[in-house]
Amino acid sequence: MSSSEEIVVRDVTNAGLVVSDRIGRDIAAQLDLEEALEASRYASHPYSTHPREWPPLIEVVDTWELPPVLVERYNAAGGEGTALCGIFPEIRRAWASVDNSLFLWRFDKWDGQCPEYGGEEQVICAVGLAKSKPGVFVEAIQHLLVLATPVELILVGVCCSGRADGADPYAEVTLQPLPEYRIPTDGVTMTCITCTQKGHIFMAGRDGHIYEMHYTTSSGWHKHCRKICLTSGLSNIISRWVVPNVFKFGTVDPIVEMVIDNERNILYTRTEEMKLQVFVLGPTGDGPLKKVAEERNLISQKDGKSTGSRATNRSSKLSIVSISPLSMVESKWLHLVAVLSDGRRMYLSTAPSANSGFNGNYLQPSCLKAVTTRPSPPLGVSSGLAFGAMSLPAGRSQNEDLTMKVEAAYYSAGTLILSDSSPTISSSLIIVTKDSTTQSSMTGSLGMSSRSSRALRESISSIPIEGRMLFVADVLPLPDKESTMEQSLYSELAFCGFEFSGESFEKTSVKLWVRGDLPTQHLFPRRRIVVFSTMGMMELVFNRPVDILRRLLESNSPRALLEDFFNRFGAGEAAAMCLMLAAKMAHTENLISNFVAEKAAEAFEDPRLVGMPQLDGSTTLSNARTTTSGFSMGQVVQEAEPVFSGAHEGLCLCTARLLFPLWELPVVATKGGLDSPDAKSESGIVVCRLSVGAMHVLENKIRSLERFLRSRRNQRRGLYGCVAGLGDLTGGSILYGTSSDNMVRNVFGSYYRNVESSEGGTSNKRQRPPYTPAELAAMEVRGMECIRQLLLRSGEALFLLQLASQHHLTRLVQGFDANLKQLLLQLTFHHLVCSEEGDHLATRLISALMEYYTGPDGRGTVDDISGRLREGCPSYYKESDYKFYLAVECLEKAAITHDNDEKENLAREAFNLLSKVPESADLRTVCKRFEDLRFYEAVVRLPLQKAQAIDPAGDALNEQIEIGIRQQALVQREQCYVIIYSALRSLKGEEPSQREFGSIVRSASSSQSNLDKASRKKYISQIVQLGVQSTDRAFHEYLYRTMIDLGLENELLEYGGPDLVPFLQKAGREPIQEAGAVSGVASAASPTGQTGGTVKSDQAKYLGLLARYYVLKRQHVLAAHVLLRLAERRSGDFQDTPTLEQRRQYLSNAVLQAKNASNNNNSAFDSGLLDLLEGKLAVLQFQMKIKDELEAMALRLEEPSTSNEPFPDRTLITDTNLASTLKEKAKEISLDLKSITQLYNDFAVPFELWEICLEMLYFANYNGDADSTIIKETWARLVDQALSKGGIAEACNVLKRVGSHVYPVDGSLLPLDTLCLHLEKAALERLVSGVESVGDEDIARALLAACKGSPEPVLNTYEQLLSNGAILPSPNLRLRLLRSVLVVLSEWAMSFFAQRIGTSASGASLILGGTFSSDQTTIINQGFRDKITSAANRYMTEVRRLALPQNQTEAVYRGFRELEESLISPYSFDRF
Q: Which of 265, 879, 1035, 1059 is geometrically suited to a Cys-Cys bond with 281, CB 3.0 to 4.6 A?
């Protein structure tokens, strides 16, 4: 399709607004007959005549004499026999009876055949034709001939057969006698017979009663046929209030006419005495007959009330000549028209008021009353009546009677035919039809509300006739004709007043003539009526306005006549008729010649006839649309709007009337389901609402009109030629390109005005600069181009619906889900053509159609159907769609082939086809096919190509545009990326099963179950590598996130692209510096100085991967920085916070990476990083200890109380809030890393964790005060805490454990003097009080263990204490210390003994409870004997000096002496 033929959806949508508006105006212009009659009461001239210079409005196209055999039989009877006649339009036959013989012949053409039915002995007194009830007779008998004789009622079967070519289904009629279907009349002579649409046969007897003839297939003693009197006893129902003298006792008023309203199911009767009766047949027409009204004096009711101004002469008695029902298309409120003998028409209703008519819910008739009367047509139409005025007919004086004398009348679908037999003139037919010129002025000025514009105006024609008019009937179109298919389009238009009772399309077309010629002349043929007279038959044809225009153009009439035609009908209507002729789309019996078509095209383009576009308010042609409201003070002056020419208006009219029958109706319906077409029906059969034939006819007309417009555009005719050389006036090509918003708004300004009425009126006060004529012409051309595109799109939509219907729509939509099927059932033709939803549903229909051809059980190839789709609906099925379905066909072949090479070649071919049209490919279904074929190149590249196609400008990555636009572009891209994500999931075995296009349901797990682990890894790596090769940065981020979500971190780190590190850094919210840029890790600018921010768990995941990446790349310093940040990360959610153990692992790994960096001799490595990490790890271990202690304390508080409490203060222990406080502190300490200061001041000290306090002081090398007061106090609190928990034994254990850990070289963190004195005092007090049994060696040995086995610091401490009498005033305490000194000296001596016997220092430690270093052993070897001996001698003297009884000191004294002696004698240890 060339660029000039491409359909712009926006233009089609805007043109759809015009069509919807035009259709609405056409519907509103169709007034109810009651409204038009009411308005005409105030009109001075309700009638007009056809211009004499024009071709005639009504023509006699053919006349036939009566069949010779009939004339001969009538003459043989001497003209005195019983003769009846009539017409059966249903079978295209006229009939006449002479005595007991009945003759039938074609009334529309003479074929030389006039069969006679003469099997009866009695005279035929009434004849009728009924529709055969189904199931009673053979299928060939579709109608029944009902004959009534004075003694018998007879049914005769009527069989119609067509010609071999099927062109005429009524070519032959055969009468089939039915001898079993005869019943006696029981002495009642029938006067008339009528039948309903459902086959009920009603007969009127001369006795004034109504009978029904029933017939069945009964056998045996049951009769096949019976007669039932339906009105017996009804005379008793007459109201008592009726004046008694009305009744003529002893006389019978026979019924002379019966008519049936098949729409309302009402039977009307007329008697000889002009009594009208109303009977109802029930809501469905099958109920029992019930009389509801009877009127005798209708003429006197309305004798003085006429809707016209002309007086009538009542010299002769008035009578009712005929009655006819009015269709619901014609009026909802008026139901019956009665033609009087003076030519007047009386319109009656069976409802008491207009609001209680048949519009809406069904209401039973309750009365019969005259509503209004139409004056009779004037006499002497052909010679005396001029247009718009009335004058006396030629040859008549004012004293002569001007009353029309009607002897026969016929009314149908707004047309009245009167047989006038006035004595002063010859017999003639007066024909009254709706004046189309008046109708056109109404539609052109919709806003006018004056009564004159709404009044019914009729045109009068007169045709002379020989003899008397006997019968008149409409000539129904043949059912197989093109016109019947067109008329079937109107069968569903209930929304605009068309409600049909299941009648045939032929009879429906008669009712549609009520709408007038203008809205339907493009579809309906000329109306034909046949008149049966005493001298023969005459066929009349009613020329439509388009026929008159055609004759004017054919005869090359003077221009004045053509201008008069445009003036009378209006430029818009006349231009629409020119389009019908120029495009050859008007329904005509003969082909429209090229000469007429060209003349019509010239008239359509002639600005002198159709005008030129101009601004509203300027001088316009008579047909131009003008504003309906006049000038009003205080109103805001509206901006001048363009008013287009009659050519544009005609195009809008023609398009709207073409699309009117289907525009707002659903395109499909269900059969066999619920009655409502919009209801959900799972069991119903989905079919197109319109027949294929009707859609084909309409499509041809639409395409003809579009081709004409396209040819004029290409030839630059009319306004196209005017604007072709103007260039780009409106931001787009005038003829071919897309228009700007400003032009569209101006072109369709009147349709936008209602939509934008709520935007305020301030802008209306600004006067827009007037448009130049060139700009106005360009706007009109652009508007016509939009409508042309709408026509093109509509033709394609009809073609698509035909194709879907031909392939059984139910089968195509069986794969649709319930929601999609419901959307299809609610889809109107308007939305199918103009909306995105309609385009989407059309695409789904095409997909189903292609699946029918290309599926596993397909019936052909893509080329079999693609050619038709590409030619018939290229806007729905584009070239890209063709390539897509070719690719699908290749994939189907690849799926069933077993040759791997061929499979790959077919997959490659499909991939190449789809690569050309990535934007139109249905990736979800297609890429699943490629997955099944293991062709992952297409799975990756096709979505990336589509992402690029839908965002060619790269808006998803453009940070300079609005965030909303950027996000929308990113969402569209991610809809493509998700296909690759699904493929990765499938390879991981996590994807659920899906329904694929054109294939059986396949399970992802089963499709991947045959892959081993190595194959899965291979395909995953292939997808990743193909994705990394892409230049789409947005996809890289999506791919990396996808792989992380699927647990493919190893593959990501192995195959990730160069942008992986920036991605992980960005995802972690903290850019990491490169190794070469790291300097001074302790500085504020280092990564460790940027660790105070909050890091969520998903960000931590990316940082963990970044650390792993750095480790793999041997970038240990960067890895250590990332691990440090992970260890120190914070989180706003407690559940998202890492545990202290996880932080310890991060720091341990960071220390390991820092050590690896130092071992690799990295020149950029700073040793301070390792020290920092090790320090943080040590502090974290303190933090973990404190947390464990707090949790243990809380647990002990929650347990039942024991003898040993954790705190000496009982009031604190019993506090019920302490446990919760401990838990809160434990939770607080777990949230993040704490500094050593925070741990000491906020946790360790408040909760008396003195042991940990001492360890932290030791770790921090605390030397804050000269006399070590804080350390001493901490030790004192620790010892007191131990004493309270476990006495001296526990205190000694704590001293051993903590002291050995913190014992330094200088001894500043181990105040031995304070500890020794405190413990000795406590031991003495507990021993004296009997609280605890304390050994003499416990404290001394604990001090030795705290000093790591070194006796000299301990001995010096005791010496210092003993030398200060102020400290030890108590003799017992001094004695206690001397015992401990004895233990220390003994242990010292034992170390010497261990060396003598060859025992190692570690062996001696088993005795001493400590360890000795090799240096200590050397000291002993160099002279410790003398030191111990001297000290023992000195302490013996100290013992003697104690003011204590000898029995208390003797043991200590003896111990010192023995120790001294053992050291002096070389054999003193032999006893050990």
A: 265
Residue 192, token pair as written in the block: 């008339």
Q: For the segment 244-262, what is each residue's pLDDT rounded down to a tens digit?
A: 434 444 578 899 999 999 8
| Average of per-residue pLDDT across 784-800 | 93
Check if the beta carbon of residue 37 is closer than 8 Å to that of residue 452. Answer: no
What distances in angstroms separate CA 72 from CA 66, 75, 79, 399, one per listed residue? Answer: 10, 5, 11, 45
Residue 385: strand, helix, or coil? coil
Order of strands across the sheet that contains 527-533 = 58-64, 536-542, 527-533, 469-474
Rg of the chain on CA atoms, in Å: 57
Statement: residue 680 has pLDDT above 50 = no
Give the pair of three-digit tokens for residue 152: 């018998």
Instruction: Report how far residue 1069's alpha carbon sits from residue 1126's, in angstroms, rounded to the nearest whole number.
Output: 12
Secondary structure of the chain: what % helix, strand, coil (to 5)?
50, 15, 40
φ/ψ (deg, to 5) at 279: -125, 145
| Helix ranges, 513-662 (H) | 545-554, 559-569, 571-582, 594-605, 607-610, 646-659
Backbone φ and ψ for 1433, nearest 5 degrees, come out as -65, -45
* Contact (CB, 8 A) for 610 and 650: yes
The answer to whether 582 and 600 have CB atoms below 8 angstroms apart is yes
CA distance 521 to 546: 7
Residue 1020 pairs in a beta bridge with: none
d(CA 267, CA 272): 17
pTM across the whole model? 0.69
Q: Is 441 helix (H, G, I), strand (E, B) or coil?
A: helix
- Tokens (6 digits) for 744: 């569209």
Of residues 10, 32, 23, the one with CA closest to residue 664? 23
Q: Write down the pLDDT at residue 792.
A: 94
At 683 the pLDDT is 58
pLDDT digits (tens, 9 = 90+) for 79-124: 666 788 999 988 889 999 988 889 999 888 877 788 888 877 889 9
The answer to whether the beta carbons of residues 1008 and 986 sit under 8 Å apart is yes
Q: Which of 720-724, 1104-1108, 1383-1387 tops mean pLDDT?
A: 1104-1108
HSE, side-chain direction, 13 A CA sphere, residue 1239: 29
Show Cβ contacts of residue 255 under 8 Å, excluding neighbours closer than 6 positions: 191, 192, 204, 205, 208, 210, 269, 270, 271, 277
- Count CA within 13 A, CB hemisphere, residue 1403: 9
Residue pLDDT, tens place only, 1295-1330: 888 887 777 645 566 788 788 888 888 888 888 887
Q: Are 1321 and 1279 in contact (CB under 8 A)?
A: no
Count other Cβ atoms within 10 Å, centred on residue 1332: 15
- Residues 6+ away with beta carbon under 8 Å from 11: 738, 739, 744, 785, 786, 789, 790
Residue type, 1281: Q
For the sheet with 116-117, list strands across it.
83-88, 93-98, 101-106, 116-117
CA-CA distance, 465 to 470, in Å (whole number)? 12
Structure token pair of residue 251: 């006389």
| Alpha helices (H) along 1303-1370 | 1312-1329, 1338-1346, 1351-1363
Range list of H helices, 32-140: 33-40, 68-76
